[in-house]
Design goal:
single chain; alpha+beta; six-stranded antiparallel sheet; five-stranded antiparallel sheet; elongated; disordered N terminus
């Protein structure tokens, strides 16, 4: 009995030591991976990485991670010299194959969500409008300042925000007014829509392989759904 007690105590101590070393290793790996992603994406905000699965060391030795969750803040997508900021991007990467030097990896599949606040969408419009929630999913309210025939107008229109195919591949966020003041009248409708209607491509700032698939809107902003296969998590 004394021998068995000693064996059990030694086993508990070794198990605790292994668990401690494993947790230290996973925390170190999460921090290093966050730094790599931060550098690769050129983020202005922060990066958080959560590696799932226990023990981590056996996953690391095989260069295979079951799941890695990444939270990015301040992602900037640039297309045609125009910048659009994603306030947050949360993504789960599954079946991650690590590089030989552990500098990053590629996921078999990934899915996530991103948020574009109305403040960021207002700045992305680059037409001097103000964008707020439109009162229903997929709707926004666009307020513009327009000068028509010497008169200054400030119409507020309800617009539909959708995701459409971009020329050459990828997706574009499109904002189009449902109706505008003076619709059908020569010069007036075009002047208003020149301010209120716009397209912005966002996938140029996402991790390679992660694509926009859907969107909706609510009081907090425009929510994007993302997914992809063979998604690059990070790299040297």
């Amino acid at each position: 009995m004394r021998f068995l007690r000693v064996v059990v105590i030694i086993g508990v101590v070794l198990g605790a030591l292994f668990a401690g070393v494993d947790r230290w290793a996973v925390n170190y790996a999460e921090n290093r991976l966050a730094e790599r992603i931060q550098a690769r994406q050129g983020l202005a905000g922060s990066t958080e990485v959560d590696i799932h699965g226990f023990p981590f060391l056996t996953q690391a030795l095989s260069h295979d991670l079951d799941r890695v969750d990444v939270k990015l803040k301040g992602v900037e997508a640039v297309s045609d010299g125009r910048k659009t900021r994603l306030s947050e991007l949360d993504a789960g990467f599954h079946g991650v194959k690590l590089n030989g030097d552990y500098s990053g990896g590629t996921a078999e599949r990934a899915e996530g969500t991103a948020l574009v606040t109305y403040r960021d969408l207002t700045e992305a419009s680059q037409t001097g409008v103000t964008i707020t929630y439109g009162g229903a999913p997929g709707k926004v309210k666009v307020t513009a300042a327009v000068e028509v025939l010497g008169r200054r107008l400030a119409p507020s229109v309800v617009s539909t925000v959708t995701l459409v195919d971009a020329p050459g591949g990828g997706k574009t966020v499109r904002v189009r007014a449902d109706e505008v003041p003076g619709e059908g009248l020569p010069g007036i409708e075009s002047a208003v829509r020149k301010k209120t209607d716009f397209d912005r491509r966002l996938d140029s700032g996402l991790p390679s392989g992660l694509k926009l698939t859907a969107l909706t809107s609510d009081e907090s902003g425009v929510h994007l759904t993302l997914s992809g296969t063979d998604v690059v998590l990070a790299g040297s």
